[in-house]
TrEMBL record:
Name under which the protein is recorded: Phosphoseryl-tRNA kinase
Domain of life assignment: Eukaryota
Signal peptide residues on this chain, from the entry's feature table: 1-29
Keywords: ATP-binding, Nucleotide-binding, Signal
Species, as recorded: Salvator merianae
InterPro entries to which the protein is assigned, alphabetical: KTI12/PSTK (IPR013641), L-seryl-tRNA_Sec_kinase_euk (IPR020028), P-loop_NTPase (IPR027417), Ser-tRNA(Sec)_kinase (IPR052648)
Coiled-coil region: none
Amino acid sequence: MAQQRGNASGLQLALCVLCGLPGAGKTTAAQALSRFLRKSHGWKCVLLSYDDLIPLEAFSQSEASSGQISQWKLHRHELLFYLEHFLQTFIKGNHYCPPPNRIETIWKSFACCLKDQGLISSPAGTDDCASCQYLIDFSFLRPIYFILDDNFYYRSMRYEVYQLARQYNLGFCQLFLDCQTEVCLERNCQRNQPLPEEIIYAMLQKIEAPNPEKYTWEQNSLILNGAELSLEDNLQVFDLLSTALENPVKRLEENLELKEMDRTICATSVLHQADQTIRQAVSQAMKNAKGSNLSPSAMKNLAEELSKLKLEFLEDLRHKPTGKQQFPQNNTFDKSIITAFNQQADDIVKKYSTA
């Protein structure tokens, strides 16, 4: 029997990162795993497939494009923010409202995903996934697993999910599908909208498999053969998921290796400060624009432009060299960043105000 949750909801919650190359069989594995856990063990599984949640046009921009920020990366960051926003509300037992300063297209996909899987519902008479408030279904007391289906080829991408589990005292585990490149390429060709082969080869050069011996936070990990995978009768997989659920990540875990990983992954606390400060700036800019009597469609377009600008600033900050100017010893970000953001945000607002 799994132990009682350490969060305020009293529910057992866990995150499972399902990672590997495109075509490794992640989506098929996620669906099979969800069916198996619901049918055999009565667990609630929520599938978050990044391929379905991120707009297709975000994948069209080459990661190697000079001077450009990948929209795919920006959307991944936004999805994780929406997941954290949901977990905060869920654990506190509150009604679920849309987060501020959101990108409507990706937010609607995320909200509809939760609604379609029975985790939230709209009040009577409202069907708009993007704008209405939601009533979270607390009627079930069974364990809930959020299965994140994405490539997660960098360890740092998976570590962001681990940090989320640590922040909210959730279970955490990883399933890494190791599959021959030829098999991945063949499966990719069979998709309705295959990825360019050069993207798969680029990921192959960068992909980082779990290494529990070096990184203790990856101890709840399995490397599976994606070409010959059967999850429905795989006791090893179920044992991993059970172990992660029964042993949620401790919030104040003292671990030297984790501290080293925190330093390696580009000053998360600084990025969090920047994120919060820039979100406040976006909110203020929207309030200022509202006083200009802009049309609803103009306000919507303005919100999307400001959200895009915010993501670009955060992504740029994330990938700057970790020198003293960006990440000083007192863990505060360079205030000139918010000044530059406000200047560009003001230019965008003026564009709409004078239109």
